[in-house]
Amino acid sequence: MRPDLDGGGPGIALVYHQLDQSLPGHGWDALAHGYLAASAAGAQRLKTASPGLFGGLTGLAFTAWTLTRDTNVLPTIHDTLLHEATTRANSLGNHPHGVPARTFDVISGLTGTGAYLLCRHHEPQARHALRAVLTALVTLCGEHTGTPHWYTPAAEIRDSATREAFPHGVLNCGLAHGIGGPLALFSLALSAGIIVPGLPQTLARTAHWLAAQRIDDEHGPDWPGLIAPPEHPAAVKPRPARTSWCYGSPGIARSLWLAATALDDPTLRDLSVQAVKAVHRRAAARRHPHNAPGLCHGLAGLLHITSRFAHDTKDPELTRAATELTEHLLASDDFVAAGGPGFLDGAAGVTLALLAAATDTPPDWDRSLLLA
Q1: Residue 237 pLDDT level (bands cut at 50, 70, 90)
Q2: Are 351 and 301 in contact (CB under 8 A)?
Q3: Alpha-helix runs per DSSP H in 97-176
Q4: Residue 183: which of 106, 131, 249 has the closest Cα?
Q5: Cα–Cα distance, 279 to 289 (Å, whole number)
Q6: Of the chain's two ends, which shows fewer C-beta atoms within 10 Å, N or C?
Q7: pLDDT grade, residue 290 (50/70/90)?
């Protein structure tokens, strides 16, 4: 079985675990552990070495921790990740300016590993590795001649169309691949009482930088996915990104909400709420059918973020929006065929979002998305 959280066994294990938490005593837990064991065997058979959260060992370790809270489950993988995180953090901290997004993002990079380490920060070794990750990301959020260190040079942009549009490199505003990920990790770490030198100041500066990139319309705040470095402004105005977790307003709004919570900043808090409301007002005004069903760039991701906001704010408008999204998703009959059984794009992620909307069971699985 595939061992990656993106589309493999760990995502299915998380679904069965959540079902067991909501409906105990029906055998779901045995299925969850069966998929976890098969995924671990798959990692050994395939000699998986990548530390990425969604394509490598971190996702498997995260799933094991979510299911068991047992420090003795998959200890070799955990120890490997501690070493990898520290090594990669030291490397990034020594050469921070102009890096591929995959070195620091949630999907493949240090931020994703940091999300897992934050789950285990009460353990001394995990806390030490987490502090190394946070220190490197704080350094990454510095600047050189006005350009943030975390910009991606054109030579490191894999997509040819993006490289052509941004010949001097690009700044990614999104949660999955951009600065929204480190911002969310900083915020959750600070709220948990984990501080490294410069973290509170970097958190505030990064949050306000991201807030300043907004491109409002008649419905409210919105954000581009990509912008040019300030030294080489683009010839065209930034365009709004898709409505999703990975890019655009929903994921960015959640990052800003977490920052507002950590900093106790009412201005950022209000901006994040208005941004989520604007997403739904925009869709209603345009009678726009929402994206594909999945968590990453589809309806399930928007549903879960909206549900999180509705729970946190008790705002009736957001509660109604979450209900409407749930009904829309339940009426769809293509979410299995559209993305297969996986977590990010398939049925596992959709099922988890629906369970979170329909039950009071805490959705601990969404730490992997850095939403809480």
Answers
A1: confident
A2: no
A3: 110-119, 124-140, 160-165
A4: 106
A5: 12
A6: C
A7: low
